[in-house]
Amino acid sequence: MTIMEPSPSPRTDLGLTGVSGVPAADAPQKVKDFTSDQEVRWCPGCGDYVILATVRGFLAELGLRRENLMFVSGIGCSSRFPYYLDAYGIHSIHGRAPAIATGLAVTRPDLSVWVVTGDGDALSIGGNHLIHALRRNVNMTILLFNNRIYGLTKGQYSPTSEQGKITKSTPLGSVDHPFNTLSVALGAEATFAARALDSDRQGLTEVLRAAATHRGTSFVEILQDCPIFNDGSFDALRRDNAADHLVPLRHGQPIVFGTDGEFAVVRSGFGLAVARTAEVEATDIVVHDAETDDPEYAYALSRLGDQELTHVVTGVFRSVARPTYDDGVRAQNAEAAERAPLQPDSLQRLLNGPETWTVG
């Protein structure tokens, strides 16, 4: 496990408030203020470069001090991320970043805690930690880089690889049914769930801004290219007709998409479906409500997508308020301390309590 420390900001007083109650810097910050002295070592053309540049620029907009930022990663190409930011960071162990971030969020409310992970790190060995962080609603932001492959270990299929995927570990094609990542997050009752594309810098920035200001667990899936082991996985979303595949969400606006707005999302039974705008009434088109407390609606949005990328929904699916786990733990500890203040021998008396015995 590696721990990175930031350069100190010009001022260290805690008088201002930034994202989620975290102290903010009063001097304007620039991208270079969040750029570490480490050489960025990803493959040429990797989508991680675009995400890193976007995050650096976005952090400058937040106005947070470097020493009040904590980035926690697991294992994988995406997990090198903390090295390249001049902020606190932990390069931890495979799949356990959400667990470590939970401890930080509970014990250090002065930190803005971020998790950077990948589809293999978060959804395979780390799947258990991810879903419990989401259901607990710990105050952290989780960025899941999804390239639908294991890149660091040289090209094995991952939990998001499409069925039939030929890789080094599936030479005859994968027989696994892949995760729908947003469906997993919403099934775990995430209070904030969103998706963005690495090459859509404006859309990614908008999603990150909304995620950072949300109190609770913010889950953001970022679709990104691995040019070495899964090149072109998301090319359908970058071609001239990409508008026919991408379904952008805007809170309070009808869900209409396509080059000329020729497609729309409508109700269909208990779920949602895509229809031609000209063939439905304007009143039948769904108006996006990210703030509805109805989890079935956001889940139905996630089911519009498929592994062939016929339709890929982007933007904020859900953003609702719910008490956070870390606030609850701190409140409970404060109440317990008020009822029974700790004494110097409290731990020893607990260890030697009535439910112990001597053997021999």
Describe, in short, the structure shown.
This protein has about 350 residues and is of the alpha/beta class. It has helices at about 50-60, 95-105, 120-125, 125-135, 180-185, 200-215, 295-300, 325-340, 345-350, and strands at about 1-5, 70-75, 90, 110-120, 140-145, 190-195, 215-225, 245-250, 255, 265-270, 270-275, 310-320. Strands 1-3-2-4-5-7-6-12-8 form a nine-stranded mixed sheet, sandwiched between helices. A three-stranded antiparallel sheet has the order 9-10-11, with helices on one face.
What is the H/E order?
A: EHEEHEHHEHEHEEEEEHEHH
Percent of residues in helices: 25-40%
Total number of helices: 9
CATH superfamily of the largest domain: Thiamin diphosphate (ThDP)-binding fold, Pyr/PP domains
Domains counted in the coordinates: how many?
A: 2
C-alpha-based Rg, rounded: 22 Å
> Low-confidence parts lasting 5 or more residues at pLDDT below 50?
10-17
Q: Report the CATH C-level class of the largest domain.
A: Alpha Beta
- Number-wise, the strands total 12
- Strand content is 15-25%
Going by helix content, strand content and strand pairing, the class is: alpha/beta
Biggest sheet: strand arrangement: 1-3-2-4-5-7-6-12-8
Mean pLDDT: 91
Termini separation (Å)?
Answer: 42 Å
Morphology call: globular
Q: Specify the biggest β-sheet.
A: 9 strands, mixed
The appropriate CATH architecture of the largest domain is: 3-Layer(aba) Sandwich
CATH topology of the largest domain: Rossmann fold
